[in-house]
Specification:
The structure is a homodimer of 201-residue chains.
Chain A (H helix, E strand, L loop, with lengths): L3 H10 L6 H13 L2 H17 L1 E2 L6 E2 L5 H4 L4 E8 L2 H10 L4 E5 L17 H10 L4 E4 L5 H13 L6 E4 L15 H9 L10
Parallel strand pairs in A: 3-4, 3-5, 5-6
Antiparallel strand pairs in A: 1-2
Helix pairs in contact in A: 1-2
Chain lengths: 201, 201
């Protein structure tokens, strides 16, 4: 017999990085706290799904037709960073250094897993390039083989579109000791080494 | 401006061992999965609070007036293990070795924090001893100073009640290397050492 407590544990188990033991602890916590605290969490989950949709231009999460980035006057609308998923938008926004806009692909190409170009928001990107005054596309995909292949696919796709296609720099992560850096990262950091201009005229 | 996504992150942050980073990951996961999966988690939380109440006898979680342990014919109703909270009942049940029933105190005495005997379910336990045929009380509280004090308080309280009061054995945890065991545990394991009867008649 499965009771409501076990059902809740099962539902919590399906969340990322929540095992059975954590799920039990969370479920018992939700039972022990005041009822309105538990109900308010449940309502937040429902409300986030009801209110938060996708921006019609960049496909980031948004409560309105256009997300705050797309509707902002202070963002450079001619600069578009292509990312895989909304979490990547949050990561880049947190850096505080990016003043352009985004385009959320919804994944990367992975033909073996059935993810072909028509499964991603590539035609929407193509349409944006035709319609908007886009000057540069920054490919902000990850470092997996699929992501690299997607980056190359996009660069080829837009080569005749009079738009500059760049990608995020590859090299040493901040604060990393050289001896712990993997060989591929080190090779890339060597290949793409930059000139040090400090102190020169 | 705080949107629904930030509200959900705040609610998730209040859960035990969920920090801001995990809360963001969980919230984005709930946005990316099919909507019914997120809604079903929310409904589980509400349902667990609506359906699961306290057993009227032992105060463990229960969907009915009496919990499965209290209403079971195969459990020894004359044996009562006193625990702090429902999670402790689950822990003992998981060991699979206990055939008695429980009494959930709802905490341990902690006068400095305002938790006096009347805040716990001690009068309810006293009433059970008068009403039910209870032969033995096993004090199954933790090892904190407050828990030890509560154990002594209970042993004194019931000394004239014609009921045996015992407590869980203290000693080495299973699989622990001797060199890593703390001094108090080692002292207790020494004091409460048991005879080895194997091979004797």
């Amino acid at each position: 017999m499965i009771g409501p407590l076990e059902e809740l544990v099962e539902a919590l188990c399906s969340l990322p990085s929540i095992g059975r033991k954590s799920a039990w602890r969370l479920a018992l916590h939700l039972m022990e706290r005041p009822e309105d605290e538990a109900v308010s969490l449940a309502e937040s989950i429902i409300s986030v799904r009801r209110k938060v949709k996708h921006c019609s231009r960049c496909f980031n999460f948004s409560e309105n037709e256009l997300c705050p980035v797309c509707s902002s006057q202070s963002r450079d609308q001619s600069l578009v960073c292509i990312v895989e998923k909304p979490a990547d938008v949050f990561a880049i926004e947190k850096s505080g250094r990016y003043r352009g806009t985004f385009h959320v692909l919804g994944g990367v190409l992975s033909p073996l897993n059935g993810i072909t170009a028509d499964k991603l928001r590539i035609s929407e990107l193509k349409a944006r390039i035709g319609k908007e005054q886009i000057r540069e596309l920054i490919v902000g995909l990850g470092g997996s083989a699929d992501a690299e292949a997607t980056a190359i696919y996009l660069a080829r796709l837009f080569r005749n579109d009079n738009v500059r296609v760049t990608r995020l720099a590859r090299g040493l992560p901040a604060g990393m000791e050289l001896e712990y850096v993997d060989q591929i990262t080190l090779s890339q950091a060597l290949c793409e080494r930059t000139d040090m201009q400090y102190g020169k005229e």
